Amino acid sequence: QEELRRALPHDAAASPVEDERGPRRQADADEPLTRREDAEELAAVLRAAVGRVDHGVRDEVEAGRVVGRTLEGAADLEEAGHALTELGVQAGVVIHTASDAVWVSRGGHSHHLKSQTVAAQDIVSPVGAGDAFCASILYGIHQGWAPDQCLQLAHRAAAASLANITATGGIPPAEQLMPTSQSTKEGALAS
Known about the structure:
It is built from eight helices and six strands, in the order H-E-E-H-H-E-H-H-E-E-E-H-H-H. The strands form two sheets. A four-stranded mixed sheet has the order 3-4-5-6, sandwiched between helices. Strands 1-2 form a two-stranded antiparallel sheet. The protein is 42% helix and 15% strand. The chain is an alpha+beta fold.
C-alpha cells in the first residue's frame, strides 16, 4: 500500500471529493464498503433489486447483508438462499464463499458443492476469482446445465483464476474446465 501511496500524485490521497454524504478524502471514497451506513445502503439496494432478477449470485457478505446476519457454513448459506428466493428471486440463488457454494432453486431444491482446494503456493492473485465464479454460473445457466454442473464449472474457473496475476489470464476455455461428458443438459435448471 505504501508503494501505491507514493505512486499517486502528492495530493490524490488527500484531495476532497463530494457526494450525497458530503466531502470526503479520495482515499475514503475508494475504500471498500466498511462504514456502517455504506453497508446499510448496499443492503437496501440489494433487497430492492432481489425481486427483479431471475438468478442471483452473491458472496456470503452481500447475501448476509440482505438477510441481516453473518453467514458461516453451508447451512447458513442454504438458509439465506431460501430467504432470498422468498424475497422474490425468480429462478434461483447462488451464494458462494472461498470454500463453499450453495444453489437454492425457487422450488426449494438446494445443491451444495465445496470448492477445490488450491495450495497457498499456487495462488498468484485472488483478483477475479469471484468474477470467474459468477461468469461461470451465468455461462452454465445459458447452456441449460444442471445446478451441480454450473457450480462445478464455477469452482473450477475460480480456482484456475488464482494461478495468474490478471483477473482472466489463468482461466482456460470452458471446454477444458468441463469436458463435454460433464456438461450435458440432463437435470437442467428445474432442479
